[in-house]
């Protein structure tokens, strides 16, 4: 449990880049995706990131996503979703392929109830859940909305028992049984989760989970409500819980310390079956496990399984939709959809990427409907990347000539970054000079003169000062 807890824890611009076509299968760890022929047989590549066959509880290739943008995401500071926006997000996530959509409790407000009912009437493939307090009044409202399941939660840490609801474990257990049995009587799914699980007493946790498992909950939930857990703590708790309950296990992980994706992956390794996510990770404070980050992590472990489950090219559309709704930008470092996600800059990277993308990519951009780029208008560029652009422009230059042009790009980039238009113009001017005989390799002054004749300010080439007779 959390080592720092004071509660009852037990120690334990793409405009500067060129697109690169994927002409070589993107294998794992440098191997061809089609394997290699050995003694006439095709050897199957082994993905080192995939779960081991001996790890029989591992669910990295057998999981479901409970998408909580319309519940946890509403708790994000900037979030206000009207009915139209909620329906658009719900439809987009359903088209992406998430198995569950979790909605704000209909007991929260009249509009929340109406929105819940409206989404239930859409006829989506995803199951619709709503998230309620462990309270009979909330349960009675929830089951009348048409949802497929109810997610019940109550705090169990000493912090929440003392400073939130003020109830002891005897009361919590009694109320949980009452609410669960009522929801089950309506013929819909029910999950019971403790809140602030990692700062709760382990004996209390296992006791209440065993109790609700015996009366037939579909899932029990572990919640890292304050984001204090690390992967080892998550693994140990889920593995222990897996040994005492037979139902599914859901995890809800906050990202206060930046561990949400790692903790979610580890939870699956330990035997969890369901992961809560939100688009861009939005939620209370800094939010929870982001949908895109989790999917990219799981893709690395088993690309074919993830591709078979989810419409990956929709990810960017969904993130843009939610980002606009909550008035934030998609982070530049966002997995898959960030501005720099498939951008390669250093010369040594560019050369390898052009030969085989798997040398520096664990994700295939084309599987997400995206394109990789090699940035070349900078001082770190290499001549192999420039050669690729020369070929795309249909120019005929030798390797020595390309190296000479690359040296000029690097020289100009020491003054300022060159846009793709800058680079293209330089390459065309260089090619024209070579073809006309006005330029040869190594003739820097001749190249400067040619550049000065073609939009010289763009290249940082200063025009010659006219000679004035008074200066003589």
Describe, in plain words, how this protein is organized in 3D.
- With 472 residues, the protein is of the alpha/beta class.
- The protein has 16 helices and 13 strands.
- The strands form three sheets. Strands 4-5-6-7-8-9-10-11 form an eight-stranded parallel barrel, surrounded by seven helices. The protein has a three-stranded mixed sheet with strand order 1-13-12.
- The radius of gyration is 29 Å and the shape is elongated.
- The termini are far apart.
Key features?
472 residues, alpha/beta, eight-stranded parallel beta barrel, three-stranded mixed sheet, 16 helices, 13 strands, elongated, disordered N terminus, disordered C terminus, HMGL-like-domain-containing protein
Helices and strands in order, then pairings?
Blueprint (H helix, E strand, L loop, with lengths): L16 E4 L15 E3 L2 E3 L20 E4 L15 H14 L3 E4 L6 H11 L6 E7 L2 H8 L5 E7 L2 H6 L5 H17 L3 E7 L6 H13 L4 E6 L6 H12 L5 E6 L6 H11 L3 E4 L13 H11 L1 H7 L5 H12 L16 E2 L2 H9 L16 E4 L7 H10 L6 H15 L6 H17 L7 H9 L20
Parallel strand pairs: 4-5, 4-11, 5-6, 6-7, 7-8, 8-9, 9-10, 10-11, 12-13
Antiparallel strand pairs: 1-13, 2-3
Protein name: HMGL-like-domain-containing protein
Organism: Vararia minispora EC-137
Q: What structural class is derived from the secondary structure elements?
A: alpha/beta
User: Approximately what portion of the residues adopt beta-strand conformation?
Assistant: 5-15%
Main sheet strand line-up: 4-5-6-7-8-9-10-11
Question: Quick one: how many beta strands?
Answer: 13
Number of helices: 16
Shape: elongated
Largest sheet: 8 strands, parallel, barrel
Q: Which regions contain 5 or more consecutive residues with pLDDT less than 50?
A: 3-15, 23-43, 459-472
Order of helices and strands: EEEEHEHEHEHHEHEHEHEHHHEHEHHHH
Q: How widely separated are the two ends?
A: 84 Å
Mean pLDDT: 85
- Measured on Cα atoms, how large is the radius of gyration? 29 Å
> Helical amount among residues, as a percent range?
25-40%
């Amino acid at each position: 449990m959390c080592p720092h807890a004071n509660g009852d824890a037990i120690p334990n611009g793409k405009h500067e880049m060129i697109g690169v076509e994927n002409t070589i299968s993107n294998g794992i760890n440098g191997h061809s995706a089609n394997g290699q022929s050995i003694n006439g047989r095709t050897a199957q590549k082994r993905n080192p990131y995939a779960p081991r066959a001996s790890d029989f509880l591992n669910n990295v290739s057998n999981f479901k996503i409970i998408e909580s943008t319309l519940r946890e995401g509403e708790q994000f500071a900037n979030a206000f979703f009207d009915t139209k926006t909620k329906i658009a997000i719900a439809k987009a996530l359903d088209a992406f392929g998430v198995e569950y959509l979790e909605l704000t409790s209909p007991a929260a407000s009249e509009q929340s109830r109406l929105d819940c009912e409206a989404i239930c009437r859409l006829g989506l493939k995803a199951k619709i859940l709503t998230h309620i307090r462990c309270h009979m009044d909330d349960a009675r409202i929830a089951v009348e909305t048409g949802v497929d399941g109810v997610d019940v939660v109550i705090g169990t840490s000493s912090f929440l028992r003392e400073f939130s609801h003020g109830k002891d474990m005897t009361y919590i257990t009694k109320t949980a049984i009452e609410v669960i049995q009522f929801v089950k009587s309506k013929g819909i799914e029910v999950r019971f989760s403790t809140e602030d699980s990692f700062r709760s007493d382990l004996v209390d946790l296992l006791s209440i989970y065993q109790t609700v498992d015996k009366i037939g909950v579909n899932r029990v939930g572990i919640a890292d409500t304050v984001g204090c857990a690390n992967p080892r703590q998550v693994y140990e708790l889920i593995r222990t819980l897996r040994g005492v309950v037979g139902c599914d296990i859901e995890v809800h992980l906050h990202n206060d310390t930046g561990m949400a994706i790692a903790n979610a992956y580890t939870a699956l390794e330990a035997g969890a079956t369901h992961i809560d996510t939100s688009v861009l990770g939005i939620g209370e404070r800094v939010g929870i496990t982001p949908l895109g980050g989790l999917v990219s992590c799981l893709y690395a472990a088993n690309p074919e399984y993830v591709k078979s489950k989810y419409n990956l090219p929709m990810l960017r559309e969904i993130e843009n939709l939610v980002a606009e709704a909550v008035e934030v930008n998609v982070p530049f470092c966002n997995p898959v959809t960030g501005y720099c996600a498939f951008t390669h800059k250093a010369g040594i990277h560019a050369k390898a990427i052009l030969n085989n993308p798997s040398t520096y990519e664990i994700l295939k951009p084309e599987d997400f409907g995206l394109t990789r780029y090699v940035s070349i208008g900078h001082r770190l560029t290499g001549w192999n990347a420039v050669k690729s652009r020369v070929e795309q422009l249909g120019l005929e230059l030798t390797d020595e000539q390309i190296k000479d042009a690359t040296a000029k790009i690097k020289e100009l980039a020491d003054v300022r970054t060159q846009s793709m238009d800058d680079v293209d113009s330089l390459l065309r001017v260089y090619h024209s000079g070579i073809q006309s005989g006005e330029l040869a390799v190594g003739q820097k002054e001749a190249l400067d003169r040619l550049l000065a004749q073609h939009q010289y300010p763009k290249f940082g080439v200063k025009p010659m000062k006219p000679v004035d007779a008074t200066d003589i």
